[in-house]
Amino acid sequence: MATRADLPAPTESPRPSPQGRPITEWDELVDLQQRTVSPRVFTDSDVYQAEQERIFARCWLYVAHDSQIPRPGDFVTNYMGEEPVIVCRDAEGRVRVFINSCRHRGMRLCRLDAGNTRMFQCPYHGWTYDVQGRLVGVPQYHEAYYGELKREEWGLLEVPRVESYRGFIFASLAEAGESLDAYLGEMKWYLDIVLNRTAAGWGMLPGVHKWSVKGNWKLAAEQFGGDNYHVTVGHESMVRLGLVPPGKTSGDEPWVRDFQVRTDKGHGWINLSIADPPAITEVTGAYQARVQIEARHRLQPAQSALVGCTYVGTVFPNCSLLSFAGFLTVRLWQPRGPKRIEVWSWGMVEREAPPAVVELARKMQILTFSPSGIFEQDDGEMWGESVEAMGGVYRRRFPLNYQMGAGYGRRDPEKPGLIHPPSTEIGVFGFYEQWRALMSGEMGAHT
Amino acid sequence: MSAVELRLEFEDLLYYEAWLLDHDRLEEWLALCAEQVRYWAPVRANVPRGAEDWARPHMLAHFDEDKGSLALRVQRIRTGVAHADEPPARVRHLVTNVRVLDGDDEAATVTSNFIVFKNRRGREECLFVGCREDRWRRIDGAWKLEERLIILDHDVTENITVLF
């Protein structure tokens, strides 16, 4: 468990606020009353290092989808924060997550993106592990170790908790804590609109979009979790080309089908009733109509009323999803220092979608939200130039404003969470409320 | 046309094309594409030697464009508010290793290597390296690009704001 002694040293002494209230370091970083966030949250290396321990070594992190590893021995490699991991289906069909580092010299055990295997052999000296993580092979075991090495004590380091939600596999480096189900909390209701609308569910397209952008991982995570405000200006080129409706951002059905949610546990969701253009519905229309009918049988009426909308969401801390123009992308904002993000983005399609619908979804994802995406490029520009511009010794004394919509959120008897029409920052600030609670130790390690 | 003449013809064409891209003459570049062009750049992966298969059905790609989507990308630049390329980057295409496979006066398969350098506001600088496999066809007397397969040598790219 993290203790106060692990806190990064304050860079400035605590000082009284104008109201005479003592400002602790955490108030200075995330001010819950003023609803502001310090630039240091995005640019300081000490904050970044503390995040690795307090956020990434504690929270449930998305690591893989069931459809990527259907058979025993199937594996993919990924990261939990900066920790390289192997996500593997063992011989009994159970999903295990191992730290991708040999117990002998720390060498990266598996250097492939994905595959199927019975063993992982370290390329350095040959220590070999089976898919249950047991050390089953040590070269020169008798000649060099005199048969004395306790192989049973040197199995792969296994991530202690692995759980999945509707095929989405999450892992946590914390030995104990709440279940994934409790962690996802109110967010499950919204995820289900997408993930549970058909019995067949979702599968991954082959290939992963991976690209490196300047920026802090939280800027990307917060944007997907609740920043609809940026769309009309950040993506103005798309407005001018007619791909984004101009003018108001509150949508045609505010509160009902155009809204944003701040859920518990720091997750956020944007729901927009934007209709797909005719060029898309021409291909997807008949299939979507089938999905609507199936969804009405599987979901609550309030959920099925939202099927077919555009969704953008973040599962705290760094997993986001976006469904727009017929596709669903799931992505990780992999932290690579305070000012660098490696984005890993997967494309998903419903398993029963006809080939023409799959192909359209794939092409729309490539065109809009990929390393060359005509929306994505704009976002990368914003995240990169923000961290470059806000980190100076003078600028960083002045906080960033997250006050939009504060106090105007409402509870809806049919929808969980605090909702508000777009645009608002109640969801975005909810992300930082959770971040602060975890970072400051206000929240126990087991919650 | 002899094999040498054909290769010289395509070297000239590829250098001209690179010049158009480097000098913001994107509409003229677009006019080199056939109406039915396919322009695609599959994602790369770290897999055992010989196991990579970018022609797998429904494989993700960095580009998989037709003429309409290429035109949309050009129109977007022309709005003046495509923020990731405004102010525009300085871009230079270096094209080498030109080979003509299966060529005649009507159609040709041409491969080439490229390095694309991009620099913008000092700290934003990157290289894209790869090769291209093109299919060109003579339509109404002029060579038009029917298909371009772009094989990038990067598994993790930067923000791709350039055309190859």
Describe the structure.
The complex is a heterodimer of chains A (447) and B (164). Chain A is 28% helix and 25% strand. In chain A, 44% of the residues are buried. Chain A is built from 13 helices and 23 strands. Chain A has helices at residues 25-29, 40-43, 45-56, 180-184, 187-195, 217-226, 231-234, 236-240, 278-298, 301-304, 355-368, 376-390, 426-440; strands at 30-31, 36-37, 61-65, 74-80, 83-89, 95-99, 114-116, 119-121, 128-130, 135-137, 161-165, 168-172, 202-204, 209-214, 259-262, 268-272, 310-315, 319-324, 327-335, 340-350, 400-401, 410-412, 415-420. Chain A is of the alpha+beta class. Chain B has 164 residues and is α+β, with helices and mostly antiparallel strands. Chain B has a single domain (3-45, 59-152), classed as Roll (Nuclear Transport Factor 2, Chain: A), CATH 3.10.450.50. Chain B is built from three helices and six strands, in the order ααββαββββ. Chain B has helices at residues 3-22, 26-31, 67-78; strands at residues 33-42, 61-65, 90-101, 107-120, 124-139, 142-152. Chain B has a six-stranded mixed β-sheet with strand order 2-1-6-5-4-3. In chain B, a hairpin with a 5-residue loop joins β3 and β4. Chain B is globular. Chain B starts with a helix and ends in a 12-residue tail after the last strand. The model of chain B has no long low-confidence stretch (mean pLDDT 96). The interface between A and B is large, with 44 and 36 residues.
